[in-house]
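Problem statement: downstream parser choked on a complex file, so we are re-checking the raw output for the protoporphyrin IX containing FE run. The parser issue turned out to be on our end (a line-ending mismatch), but while we're here, posting the original submission so the record is complete.
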Amino acid sequence: MIYQKDTAEPSYLDYKGKYKGIFSWIFSTDHKRIALLYMFSILTFFAIGATLGLLMKFELIAPGRTIMSAQAYNAFFTLHGIIMIFAVVIPGLPAVFGNFLLPIMIGAKDVAFPRINLLSWYLYVTGVSLVVISQFTGQGPPDTGWTFYAPYSFRTAGNMLPAVFGAFVLGFSSILTGLNFLVTIHRMRAPGMTWLKMPLFPWTLYATGWVQLLATPIIGITLLMIVAERTLHIGFFDPTLGGDPLLYQHLFWTYSHPAVYIMILPAMGAISEIITTYSHKAIFGYKFMIASVLAIAFVGYFIWGHHMFTSGMSGTALYTFSLLTFIVAVPSAIKVFNWIATMHQGSIDLQTPFYWAMAFLFVFMIGGFSGLILGSLAANVHLHNTHFVVAHFHFIVFGGTGFAFFGAMHYWYPKITGRMYDTRWANIGLVLFFIGFITLYGPMFYLGFKGMPRRYYDYDEVFHAGNIVSTMGSWVLYSGLVIIVINLFASLKSKIKAPSDPWGGKTLEWTIPSPPPVENFEEIPTVTKGPYNYS
Amino acid sequence: MYSTTGIDASNFVSTFNTSFYFIAGISLFLLTGLTITMLYFVFKYNKKKHKVAIQNEGNLLLEITWTAIPVILALMMFYYGWEGWKPLGKVPANAMTVTTTARMWSFSFRYENGKESADLVVPVNTPVKINLVSLDVIHSLFIPAYRIKSDIVPGREKVMWFLPEREGDYDLYCAEYCGLRHSYMKSMVKVISKEKFAAWLGDTTTLAVATTGTTPGEEGLSIMRIQGCLACHSSDGTKIVGPTYLNLFGKQEVVTRNGTDVTITVDSAYIKRSIFEPNADIVKGYPKGLMQSYKGKISDADITKIIEYLKSLNEK
Ligand code: HEM
Ligand SMILES: [Cu+2]
Ligand SMILES: [Cu+2]
């Protein structure tokens, strides 16, 4: 093909292919379009999940019935948990920003298997639908909690099979994405981009890829066991058949704990990119950042038992799980130190994504520290299954992954859309969101400490004050959220076109036009320097 | 919940506190320190004041320091947690034994002499060992004031113990999600003096409260409170998860028996059957498998008392 200099290749948004309209999206194998498919699906599910959360908080503003029945509350937290975990934060950053940016950041034209990439989106949609539908097709309404603990879940719903099958399909989608990324990173890096010249976001996707690949089969095994138990009556989990409910918990958490790392590692990668770009300074301790990501991914496999400290495991198991839980905190601490050290003597441009990164650091630290408290055996015995845990995981998962997601959204927005967003509204949204977040979840630490169990529709008067504050926080948070999202959509019509490198970033995505052309690079670049070369 | 006399509610309060405040203290210190450092850098190295960044790609000594210090801190935290946990597994030999039976959605407590109670009544300063039994799904016995909880797993033998050190009433909650009325599955720990406890325990008519009453059927009500029937059945016409007891006796209703609907009259034999074989006849509109059989747990004499109570609820 002869390339003509004056007619630049169309951007991936303008490109006209075989299909038209919506089909040009849902049949596209372009990694950038698939990323946006994920983005819209995830945002839709997030809106549903967040609304359920808002309603739950409203119910909890006073003891007794406020707006819904106990049955409805139980159904709400179940759906909320399932949607947020399986449909929002697990795919979250890898599926959206990983898909969009991984090939670009390593100088490739697409992922290794573009068709499989599209297939994983279909599997994702199918899996989420299965899980959600399964919750309505059993004998009862959905009310097992997102953990589906045996034997309760077997007794009430009888729709465990489709639910776990849905989770398995989702897992498959996740395996395919992971596999795709692993192969892409191994085989398609631009000439000259050695492992130690690769930016940190691809590095975290690499570690995540392995976790996705290795942890997900466990959920497959669990599914087979449930099938065998339901159809052949071989007792695995159900005590009435001679099974052991704790075995279910072990299997569930062997998958679901590493899943937490699928959520958080890419978030750490995105934050690294944001901090170094706006500090205009190379990331501090690049190799240690990589080592700590790999360490977290590895040790993360062996700490699932900390979800089961009060369930009656042996002393040795408790000992080991608790020790490893403390150990896994160390690499996260190293990351925090390096992020802050990156700011030292930088030249910091206070743009919205940088504020998100600062907010991320703050809530991530609180989430991590409260995790240490929960990892301590003596403290866990009191705090397990209370609102302290609810606060902890919202701080880590919502505060960690969620803040990083919004940070990444604003950071790469110009690249993805080719427009600049309105900074003032973005910042107002952020401030409201942050204040709301702290007011919503902060009091839950206190409530849990005082002994309010989680998954409680009704509570004693001692817990009233804390719940009022927390509920008001949810309103502030929600308003912030609405402003942020409206601003991003409204800015699509903005007249200010984004240059190829609005922030002064050094990684490869900032060397190509915004929005990127279909093939990303006119000519595959040759990499000679490290990823954060500012000198 | 908190002591005004300086005496903790239980022996585990101080072990919890040691490890909680140790970690929380260090965390708060680090959180504040790191946040202030971050804010200071952001302020000081703002691009307006600090136009050109000074590149520095890392420092091995710093990395080693901030790896080593967290490792040491983490190990110390782990150690306190482990030390504080150990006594939980060491039940004193002289402990008094109580067996708790958890079912959706109530606890009941049985003492060694056979006495049953809906509240956990214990003498002060006496170690109490609790055998944990669940009849249906996983529950968890949680006493916030004592800083302990333990899951109650069906089919598994488990115990927990504590030493109540202060008289008073303390909340006891179910802390493992167990279905519709999970948040109503609660009870009380009542810590009383040793003398009062001896008198209470010695009164083995089970129904210490009811025998003093004179209203017909009050004994039946106490039995049902202890057996946890009231978690699912009301006496005032409201539907919890099972049918209400109000106007039940003598009523005509439709039940599903082996898949076919039959109309029956609620009489003494039917009630007995409902209690011993709850899944034989399922009242129309209600779920199967929720109510457990009480065979071997309630005597025929007690059933007569329950029926007497049900009769007393009929509005004339
Ligand atoms: C939009 C704001 C949100 C609000 C107002 C909210 C609120 C709540 C509330 C009230 C509960 C139930 C607590 C209980 O009774 O035990 C809950 C549970 C939960 N939330 Fe959120 N949440 C929000 C966002 C998120 C996000 C972003 C995630 C993503 C990870 C998430 C994950 C969960 C999970 C996994 C549960 C546990 C469900 C269960 O117990 O089965 N939430 N949330
Ligand atoms: Cu319970
Ligand atoms: Cu419960």
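For whoever reads this later: Chain A touches chain B through 87 residues (CB under 8 Å).
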